[in-house]
Every structure is written in C-alpha cells, then in structure tokens.
Amino acid sequence: MHCWKTINVKKQYGADRLFFISALIGAAVFTSYYMLLAIAYAEPLSDQNFMLFMIGMLAIYPVHKLLHLVPLFGSRKCLKISIRKQLKLCPTISLYIKEPVRKSRFMLSLVLPFSAINTTIVVLSIFWPAYSHYFAILLAYHSALCVTDLIYMRNLARSPRHALIEESDTGFEILVPQPMA
C-alpha cells in the first residue's frame, strides 16, 4: 500500500476559515429553510416547549458523533474515542481510526449523521409547523456542524474506488494498493 493523498482540512483551510464557512452555511440554511416553511405554512408559531428545543440543541452534537460510529461498528478495534474540554467549558468528542477502513465504509460514516439528523428535522418540521422556527435553527446548527464532514466527502469522492482510509497525525491518509510488478 502507498499513500495516494493526505487530507487535513483544518490545516488546509484553517480553524478560523472553517468556522466562518460553517457560520455562513448555518445562516444560509436557517434563512432559506425558515422562509420556505413560512411560505408553506400559515400556522402561527409557538414558543412553547422551549426546553425540548434546548435539549435538542444540546443533543445534536453527541448524536452526530454517535452516528459517525454506526457504520464503523464492525471494526470497533480500530476506533479510539476521546473526550476533551475546549475552553474549559465545552466537551468535544474526537474519533480516531487506528487501522485502515474501506473508503465506502468511511464515506458512509461521514454522510450518515448529515442525512439521518437533517431528514429527521425536516420531517418533524412538516409534522409540527408551529415549531418551524425551532426546527429551522436545529437544521442550521446541524448543517454547520457537518461542513467539515462534507469537505472530507468532497475530497474522498475524487479518490480511487478501492482505497483505504487511515488516520495519522497529519490527517486522513488515502491508501491504495500497489500494483503487482
């Protein structure tokens, strides 16, 4: 096996630029989705169940990280999970892959939280249009969380089909088998 490419989005884009891109995408998703819901439903908005909304806001991040793990359950030995506090306040959950994983499995791991959580939020907003403003905020927040995953997806989509993905100190390495001579 040899390394076809190494991807380190935080080094490539920088933490500030990633935060800015995430904030822009979150604002764009909120604005467009809220306007779409406001046009589709004339029902008055309700500010009841604010505590459920706050629980949803707090639950999205850990559920997002857990959904990253679901496609990788078959290879539990190669996963390492660490929880660190950032700014002495916010816990961050980091997932590390210690052994190479098939590209298709890794891409499924990247896209599963985006598709599952966003689909759930959209469906809930259709069933309860009185809380569409809450769902628009949740959708925007989660879409902003997914920016890094989507950037990795874009990079991996261009890689060879039968590649393996491995994490190293420098980022994710795309490994391809060497042809037999």
From TrEMBL:
Q: Where are the transmembrane segments?
A: 18-42, 48-67, 106-128, 134-152
Alphabetic keyword roster:
Membrane, Transmembrane, Transmembrane helix
Matching entries from InterPro entries are given as:
DUF3267
Source taxon at top rank: Bacteria
This protein's name: DUF3267 domain-containing protein
Taxonomic source organism: Planococcus dechangensis
